[in-house]
Amino acid sequence: MENISVLGAGSWGTALAIVLAENGHRTRIWSHRHDQVDEMNTQHTNAKYLPDTTLPHSLVATASLQEAVNDSDIVVVAVPTKAIREVCQQFVGSMRAPKLFVHVSKGIEPDSLKRISELLAEEIPSDYRSDIVVLSGPSHAEEVVKQHPTTVTVACENMAAAERVQDAFMNHYFRVYTLEDVIGAEIGGALKNVIALAAGAVDGLGYGDNAKAALITRGLAEISRLGVKMGANPMTFAGLTGMGDLIVTCTSVHSRNWRAGNLLGKGYKLDEILTQMGMVVEGVRTAKAAHQLAQTYDVAMPISSALYSVLFEQQAPKEAVDALMARMKKREIDEMQ
């Protein structure tokens, strides 16, 4: 049995905390909202994020970040990408011993272009982290809490750390593989949100399955091109953190990014969409980072560039799709390299 804390009580953080508690670990979940902590501890629910889900009575919620971190051997970071630096800065000064950190968010910091493992490494001194592991793959919280079969990957160059996390999470409905390619896992997990926004927009425009199948396929090609240029193993993108995560995020109504893109295609403005969603849509912020990464690494990413134009340059979604279709003719194999 491990002492594990999950930082972040959104839908994914809560679902993972449920898995860990059901696996018999001493599990805490942290939220900065006292009313949410009270609800989880007294009513054993998290109605805003996972309605109709009962939390295990063994799962303890806390509003003390320092308590959550210091009383655990493994710390699962499940806050949005934009909050990671701030959250780390709040607890790092009070740390008493090194922890194994697992991050489960999917994004890239704009401007710095740092992956999440790099953000954690910058904010948490090496003396206080035994390692950093990435957990990623095709997984919707709404299905995990129903114990629907789910398969994910944990990535770390240190296989002993990856296997420890694998052992902590794995059970009869939550299968976990290990991987050494941290860059590939993080790039696949982050950029699939960008493609999912575009897939939702295609659906919102009413263009059908032909268009979406092409977009998913070409989207995987541009994610792979960038990832390989950054040092990832190309085979990673054919796996759970690449193709698997991309498919589920582009096709499921559970996907926030798909839902946001769908509204975009139907003519809603970005501000209206984010207000209506009421939850973080990681792909919006990551679209800006993807645009910057494409320029930095000189990689052709036409779908990501088109989405950037729609989100931040007020191009109409239909015009962006038409421009993609009118691109210069090429051999498909050239587009995949």
Task: Please specify the SSE layout and strand pairing.
Blueprint (H helix, E strand, L loop, with lengths): L2 E5 L3 H12 L3 E5 L3 H9 L17 E3 L2 H6 L3 E4 L6 H8 L7 E5 L12 H8 L5 E8 L4 H4 L5 E6 L3 H11 L4 E6 L2 H23 L3 H22 L10 H12 L4 H10 L4 H8 L4 H15 L5 H11 L4 H9 L6 H4 L2
Parallel strand pairs: 1-2, 1-4, 2-3, 4-5, 5-6, 7-8
Antiparallel strand pairs: 6-7
Strand percentage lies at: 5-15%
The largest sheet, given as strand count, sense and whether it forms a barrel, is:
8 strands, mixed
Q: What is the architecture of the largest domain at the second tier of CATH?
A: 3-Layer(aba) Sandwich
Give the termini distance in whole angstroms.
46 Å
| Total beta strands | 8
Compressed to H and E, one letter per element, the order equals EHEHEHEHEHEHEHEHHHHHHHHH
Helicity level:
40-55%
| Contiguous helical run count | 16
Total number of distinct structural domains: 2
Uncertain stretches: none
Keywords:
single chain, 337 residues, alpha/beta, Rossmann fold, N-(1-d-carboxylethyl)-l-norvaline Dehydrogenase, domain 2, eight-stranded mixed beta sheet, 16 helices, globular
Task: Describe the 3D structure.
The protein is of the alpha/beta class. Strands 3-2-1-4-5-6-7-8 form an 8-stranded mixed beta sheet, sandwiched between helices. Helix 8 (182-204) packs across helix 13. Helix 1 (11-22) links the parallel strand 1 (3-7) and strand 2. Helix content is 51%, strand content 12%. It folds into 2 domains: 3-180, NAD(P)-binding Rossmann-like Domain (Rossmann fold), CATH 3.40.50.720; 188-335, Orthogonal Bundle (N-(1-d-carboxylethyl)-l-norvaline Dehydrogenase, domain 2). The N and C termini lie far apart (46 Å).
